[in-house]
Design brief:
With 239 residues, this protein is an alpha+beta fold. The chain has a single domain, classed as D-amino Acid Aminotransferase, Chain A, domain 1 (2-Layer Sandwich). The protein has six helices and eleven strands. The strands form three sheets. The chain has a five-stranded antiparallel sheet with strand order 3-4-7-11-8. It has a four-stranded antiparallel sheet with strand order 2-1-5-6. A two-stranded antiparallel ribbon has the order 9-10. β9 and β10 (189-192) form a beta hairpin. The model has no long low-confidence stretch (mean pLDDT 93).
């Protein structure tokens, strides 16, 4: 069935005594508006949701999911991502994955003020229910730069121009994060070897500001045939 609504991703960390929900994201899964499906071309975080919608997500999807695992005696500890469409009739569950989503994770992690290692350690030690998670009030926009031909037949072996060292040192407000995917190092030079090559994450005071910083940062990613969606996050501040 085709569902009309807002796609969101719920990212949970689950241990034997409880769970922790990380900031909610919204992913762009098509090569363009109405285009071919991909592994993900962008993501925004957090998603501005009404309190009633957030409560509905917990009451109708998250809690029943975890109750069902216990009822079927399926012990699970780890990352659980839940894809949901927010429709006019309410949230509709689409699917589950037992991993972080890509590029949603790249948008989520930079907003965590708590070290991700400490969070994962708490999950390992079954202390998530008493763990305090600190999250920035900023927003993030993740923008994927892909190879020519992706998602059907990506062209590989293209050399990336070096990114200025100052941009690679850290992501202060207004500076981007760069996450490398479908590339490898050939004698110190980055060369493409997959479809989704680099994810650029802009951080800002809101989604509009983060969008501006992401698209500013993507100008430093250059290789023959590189392309990306021009609209990641637009719908959250243009409507």
């Amino acid at each position: 069935d085709h569902l009309e609504g807002l796609p969101i991703t719920l990212t949970l960390l689950v241990d034997n005594k409880g769970y922790m929900m990380l900031p909610t994201s919204s992913d762009y899964m098509k090569a363009g508006h109405g285009g071919l499906p991909t592994g993900g071309m962008g993501s925004i975080c957090p998603v501005p949701l009404q309190e009633s919608v957030s409560k509905s997500l917990v009451d109708t999807i998250i809690e029943p999911t975890l109750f069902g695992l216990k009822a079927e005696k399926m012990a699970y500890k780890g990352v659980l991502t839940i894809s949901v469409i927010i429709t006019k009739q309410g949230p509709i569950l689409v699917d589950y994955h037992v991993r972080f989503n890509d590029p949603a994770a790249q948008a989520i992690v930079p907003l965590l003020r708590t070290d991700i290692i400490d969070i994962l350690t708490a999950m390992k030690e079954d202390t998530l229910s008493t763990f305090t998670l600190e999250v920035s009030t900023n927003s993030a926009v993740a923008l994927v730069v892909a190879s020519e031909g992706y998602p059907e037949d990506p062209v590989v072996g293209k050399e990336l121009k070096p990114i200025p060292a100052a941009l690679m040192s850290n992501a202060f407000m207004g500076s981007p994060f760069y996450f490398f995917g479908g590339v490898h190092s050939d004698n110190g030079t980055l060369v493409t070897d997959g479809g989704r090559c680099v994810t650029v994450v802009g951080i800002g005071y809101n989604i509009m500001d983060a969008n501006k910083n992401a698209y500013k940062g993507v100008k430093h990613i250059s290789f023959p045939g590189a392309w990306y969606r021009p609209d990641i996050g637009d719908s959250f501040f243009t409507n």
